[in-house]
Automatic annotation (TrEMBL):
Domain of life where this protein originates: Bacteria
The name this protein goes by in its record: Bifunctional NAD(P)H-hydrate repair enzyme
Domain called YjeF N-terminal: residue spans: 9-221
Family listed: In the N-terminal section; belongs to the NnrE/AIBP family.
Function recorded in the entry: Catalyzes the dehydration of the S-form of NAD(P)HX at the expense of ADP, which is converted to AMP. Together with NAD(P)HX epimerase, which catalyzes the epimerization of the S- and R-forms, the enzyme allows the repair of both epimers of NAD(P)HX, a damaged form of NAD(P)H that is a result of enzymatic or heat-dependent hydration. Catalyzes the epimerization of the S- and R-forms of NAD(P)HX, a damaged form of NAD(P)H that is a result of enzymatic or heat-dependent hydration. This is a prerequisite for the S-specific NAD(P)H-hydrate dehydratase to allow the repair of both epimers of NAD(P)HX.
NCBIfam families per the UniProt record, alphabetical: yjeF_cterm (TIGR00196), yjeF_nterm (TIGR00197)
Length: 517
C-alpha cells in the first residue's frame, strides 16, 4: 500500500482535480461522508450521542463542515466550532460553510481564550468530539489559541475522532510540531500519510481506518509515489514455496564473518537465523579461539576458524582465506560482534573489491565504514546495510535526533547516493533502495529492543539472499518476518522478558504462517 507525505497528497488531489476533472468539492463531500459513516458507528456505541465538530479554516475544516451537514440531516445533535476568523475561509471549505449556515446549524467561531473556555464547558456535554482543525496543511507548531484548543480537547475525556491525521502531527514525518490532538480513532483519507505510520505521530491515535474518497487508482499510479507500507501480501509474493525436487544446494551457501572475544553470541544468533530462514548451507568465519564454542552450540554450520592477530580478533593475514570462502558462497555478511578494528576495515576493503555476490553489512562493519564511506564506491555487487539510528548517526555524522526527525528523507538520500539498500532499523524500520523507493515496516514491538535483535535480522536477510531472493525483496521480507517473529514471541511471553533468541525460535513459525508450509 502506498503512503504519502503532505506534498505528495496535495499533488494527488491536484491530479484528481485537474487531469481527471473531479471537482474538489466532490472529494471533500466523499471525505465528509466517510467521516460521517465512522461517527455514526461510534454513535451506536455511545450513550451520549451529541457531536461537537471543531474545524480549522482549511480543507480539513471543510471535511468537518460536510460531516456536520450529514449528521444534522440525520437528526444527530451536532455543534460546529471554528477556530479563527471565518472571513479567511475560501474555496470548497467556504462553500460547505455557507451551506451549513443556511441549514441553521449551531455554528460559532472561537477567536480568543474565552471562547476556548466556553468550548471546554460545552465539551462536558458532548459525547463525541471531531478534530477537523488541521490535516496535511500543518505548517508550524501549534501555539497560542491552537495550543490551548488542543489542550482542552485532550483533557475533555470524550471520544475523539480525528479527520485525516490528529491535528498537530506533521503528515510528512510523524513529528509533533509542539503539541497534537490525542485521538481514539483517525479517519485517514484515501492513503495513509507518513505521519499516520511513523512515530511519534502514530502513537497519537489508538486506531486508524483508511477511507476511499474517490481519487482514481490510475491517478495514484501515475504519480509514481515512492513510499510504501510493507504488507503481508507483498511478503507472500516474495517468499516462494519450496519445490519438492530440491536439495540443500538449491537453497544457497551463506557465509558469515562475525564474532570476537566476548561477542560470540552475536555470531551465533546471526547463524541460527540464517538456518531458520531457510538457507541450505552456512559457513561461519570466527577467530580460532572461539571456534570450539561455536561448534558446540551450532552443530549445523561449518566453521572456518581464522588465525588471530591477538586473542579473539581476526587478523589481516586471514584475508585470503576469507576471500576464498566468499568466492564459493552465494552471500556474505560481515559485522555482528566483530569488534571494531583496523583489520576489519582492511577485510572489508578486500571483500568490496572482490565480491560479486550480495554483501550484508551490520554492526562493527558499519562502524568501520564511518568516515570511510567512499569505500562503498569499490562495490561491484549489491550491499545491504542494516544500521540502527545510532550506527546511522556515526555513519553519516549527523546527530541521532536529526535522523529520528527525518528518517525517510535521510534513508532515501543515503541509498540513492551510495547505491546500496539501506535498512534503517528501529520502531518502524525504513528500507530505502538505490532507485529512490522507500518502504516502512509496521511489524515488531518494543520487546525487540533487546541485545542481539539486530544480529537476528542480519541472519534473516543473509538467509533470504542465500536462497537467491533479490536484494531489495530479501530486505523487505527479512524486516517484515523479523518483526512478525518478534510479535509472535511477544504474544507468547510478553514484551518484558523477550530475548533475541525468542525471535529466532518464532521465526520459522512466522514464515510458515505466510508461506503456508
Ligand atoms: N482537494 C483537497 O485538497 C482535499 C483535501 N482534503 C482535506 O484537506 C486537508 C488539507 O487541507 P489544506 O491543505 O487546506 O490544509 P489544512 O490541513 O486544512 O490546514 C491548513 C489550515 O491550517 C492552518 N494552520 C496550519 N498550521 C497551523 C498552526 N500551527 N497554527 C495555526 N494554524 C495553522 C492554516 O493557517 P494559515 O497557515 O493559512 O494561517 C490553514 O488555515 C486534508 O488533510 C484533508 O483533510 C479532503 O477534503 C479531500 C480533498
Ligand atoms: N520498539 C520497537 N518496535 C519494533 N521493532 C523494534 C523496536 N525496538 C527494536 N526493534 C527492532 O529490533 C532490532 C534491534 O536491532 P539492534 O539495535 O541492532 O540490536 P542489537 O545491536 O542488539 O542486535 C531492529 O531490527 C529493530 O527494528
Ligand atoms: K485533523
Amino acid at each position: 500500500m502506498k503512503v504519502v507525505d503532505g506534498i505528495q497528497m496535495k499533488m494527488l488531489d491536484q491530479t484528481a482535480m485537474e487531469e481527471y476533472k473531479i471537482p474538489g468539492i466532490i472529494l471533500m463531500e466523499q471525505a465528509g461522508m466517510a467521516v460521517t459513516e465512522e461517527i455514526m458507528k461510534e454513535i451506536q456505541r455511545q450513550e451520549n450521542k451529541r457531536v461537537m465538530i471543531i474545524c480549522g479554516l482549511g480543507n480539513n475544516g471543510g471535511d468537518g463542515f460536510v460531516a456536520a451537514r450529514h449528521l444534522f440531516q440525520r437528526g444527530i445533535p451536532v455543534k460546529v466550532r471554528i477556530i479563527g476568523d471565518i472571513a479567511r475561509l475560501n474555496g470548497d471549505a467556504k462553500s460547505n460553510y455557507d451551506i451549513l449556515k443556511k441549514l441553521k446549524t449551531d455554528i460559532k467561531t472561537m477567536l480568543d481564550f474565552q471562547d476556548i473556555q466556553k468550548l471546554s464547558d460545552e465539551l462536558a456535554h458532548s459525547g463525541i468530539v471531531v478534530d477537523a482543525i488541521c490535516g496535511t496543511g500543518l505548517n508550524r507548531g501549534a501555539d497560542g489559541l491552537w495550543k490551548e484548543l488542543i489542550r482542552v480537547i485532550n483533557q475533555c475525556g470524550k471520544y475523539i475522532l480525528s479527520i485525516d491525521i490528529p491535528s498537530g502531527v506533521s503528515a510528512s514525518t510523524g513529528n509533533i510540531l509542539d503539541t497534537a490532538v490525542r485521538a481514539n480513532k483517525t479517519v485517514v483519507l484515501q492513503l495513509p500519510k507518513v505521519g499516520n505510520i511513523n512515530f511519534p505521530g502514530a502513537d497519537y491515535s489508538d486506531e486508524m481506518i483508511v477511507k476511499d474518497i474517490g481519487i482514481p487508482k490510475e491517478a495514484i499510479e501515475r504519480n509514481n509515489l515512492n513510499i510504501s507500507l510493507i504488507t503481508e501480501t507483498m511478503i507472500r509474493n516474495i517468499l516462494p514455496r519450496r519445490k519438492n525436487d530440491t536439495h540443500k544446494g538449491n537453497y544457497g551457501k551463506a557465509y558469515i564473518v562475525a564474532g570476537s572475544m566476548g561477542m560470540t553470541g552475536a555470531a551465533m544468533l546471526t547463524c541460527e537465523a540464517v538456518f531458520r530462514s531457510g538457507a541450505g548451507l552456512l559457513k561461519v568465519a570466527i577467530p580460532q579461539s572461539l571456534n570450539s564454542i561455536m561448534e558446540t552450540r551450532l552443530i549445523e554450520a561449518i566453521t572456518v576458524p581464522l588465525p588471530e592477530l591477538k586473542k579473539g580478533v581476526v587478523g589481516i593475514s586471514d584475508i585470503e582465506k576469507i576471500i576464498k570462502t566468499m568466492k564459493e558462497s552465494d552471500v556474505i555478511a560481515v559485522g555482528p560482534g566483530s569488534g571494531q578494528t583496523r583489520e576489519l576495515e582492511e577485510v572489508l576493503r578486500n571483500i568490496f573489491e572482490e565480491a560479486t555476490i550480495p554483501i550484508v553489512l551490520d554492526a562493527d562493519a558499519l562502524n568501520s565504514l564511518a568516515h570511510r564511506l567512499d569505500m562503498l564506491k569499490l562495490l561491484k555487487s549489491t550491499a545491504v546495510l542494516t544500521p540502527h539510528i545510532g550506527e546511522m548517526a556515526r555513519l553519516i555524522n549527523i546527530p541521532i535526533e536529526e535522523i529520528q526527525r527525518n528518517k525517510i528523507q535521510i534513508a532515501m538520500e543515503f541509498a540513492q547516493k551510495w547505491k546500496v539498500i539501506l535498512i534503517l532499523k528501529g520502531a518502524r524500520t525504513v528500507i530505502a533502495s538505490p532507485e529512490g523507493k522507500v518502504f516502512i515496516n509496521t511489524t515488531g514491538n518494543p520487546g525487540m529492543a533487546t541485545a542481539g535483535s539486530g544480529d537476528v535480522l542480519t541472519g534473516i536477510v543473509t538467509g533470504f539472499l542465500a536462497q537467491g531472493i533479490q536484494p531489495l525483496e530479501a530486505a523487505l521480507a527479512a524486516v517484515y518476518m523479523h518483526g512478525a517473529a518478534g510479535d509472535r514471541a511477544a504474544v507468547r511471553i510478553g514484551e518484558y522478558g523477550l530475548m533475541a533468541g525468542d525471535i529466532v525460535v518464532e521465526l520459522p513459525h512466522a514464515i510458515k504462517e505466510i508461506v503456508g508450509k
